């Protein structure tokens, strides 16, 4: 049976009617209401303009490459990255986590030829995104999970460092989410003497939480540090 456009739109409207309202600030499910109708209109126009574009092929659609470059550049500036920091826009948080773990593993192996067939490990809080566990399973890394305080919702720095010390040279990545209360510049990332592992260093006394990371929607690519910009 041939259905009209009106029928299809009516069915979609009926389905949408069962969803909670996305405006009014009463729902938090990866939907962020700006409270500004003009921005809603802009977002709708922008999405409509790119509906026919295949975002998987920036070689054909140069606009995709330009947008990705602009987004990665903004993330790099936000986290004070240097010219060596590059990145890529991914399909979502899971892909970002997978790429971060892969980059960490490759950098860990590259730091010592003897590690070519060795098994690395990652340290993460128990509240980290499940995609990190998935990535570890796919890429043959071990996971050391650090407990998170019920009251503060944070994994202590001491517990993270203890896990790193226990793993020693096997540690390829530590997954954290550092939240500064004063300014973005209070958090910086540096290479650990162990190799590609990154550790958070703070210019303020604000305690760092550790509940998973995916930096600004831009994941690292080979040749860069994971979860950096």
Short note summarizing the structure:
By secondary structure, the protein is an alpha/beta fold. It contains six helices and seven strands; from the N terminus they run αααβαβαβαββββ.
What keyword list fits this structure?
single chain; 229 residues; alpha/beta; Aspartate Aminotransferase, domain 2; 2 domains; 3-stranded parallel β-sheet; two-stranded antiparallel sheet; 35% helix; 14% strand; extended; disordered C terminus
Molecular structure report:
- The chain has 229 residues and is of the alpha/beta class.
- The chain folds into two domains: 5-49, no CATH class; 90-219, Type I PLP-dependent aspartate aminotransferase-like (Major domain) (Aspartate Aminotransferase, domain 2, 3-Layer(aba) Sandwich).
- The chain contains six helices and seven strands.
- It has helices at 5-16, 37-49, 62-78, 93-110, 130-139, 157-167, and strands spanning 88-89, 121-125, 142-146, 171-174, 187-192, 195-202, 218-219.
- The protein has a three-stranded parallel beta sheet with strand order 3-2-4, with helices on both faces. A two-stranded antiparallel ribbon has the order 1-7. Strands 5-6 form a two-stranded antiparallel ribbon.
- Helix 5 links the parallel strand 2 (121-125) and strand 3.
- Helix 4 crosses helix 5.
- It is extended and about 65 Å long.
- Residues 180-229 have low confidence and may be disordered.
């Amino acid at each position: 049976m041939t259905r009209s456009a009106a029928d299809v739109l009516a069915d979609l409207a009926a389905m949408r009617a069962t969803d909670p309202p996305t405006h009014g600030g009463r729902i938090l499910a990866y939907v962020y209401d700006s409270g500004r109708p003009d921005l809603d209109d802009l977002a709708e126009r922008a999405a409509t303009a790119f509906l026919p574009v295949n975002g998987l092929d920036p070689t054909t659609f140069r606009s995709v490459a330009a947008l990705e470059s602009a987004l990665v550049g903004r993330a790099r500036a936000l986290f004070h990255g240097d010219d060596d920091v590059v990145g890529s826009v991914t399909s979502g948080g899971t892909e970002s986590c997978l790429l971060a773990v892969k980059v960490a593993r490759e950098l860990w192996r590259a730091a010592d030829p003897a590690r070519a067939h060795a098994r690395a490990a990652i340290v993460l809080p128990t509240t980290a995104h499940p995609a990190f566990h998935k990535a570890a399973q796919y890429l043959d890394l071990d996971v050391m999970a650090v407990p998170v305080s019920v009251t503060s919702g944070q994994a202590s720095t001491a517990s993270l460092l203890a896990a790193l010390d226990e793993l020693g040279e096997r540690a390829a990545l530590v997954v954290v989410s550092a939240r500064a209360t004063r300014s973005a510049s209070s958090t910086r990332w540096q290479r650990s003497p162990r190799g590609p592992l990154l550790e958070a260093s703070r210019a303020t006394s604000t305690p760092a939480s550790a509940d998973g990371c995916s930096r600004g929607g831009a994941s690292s690519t080979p040749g860069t540090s994971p979860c950096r910009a």
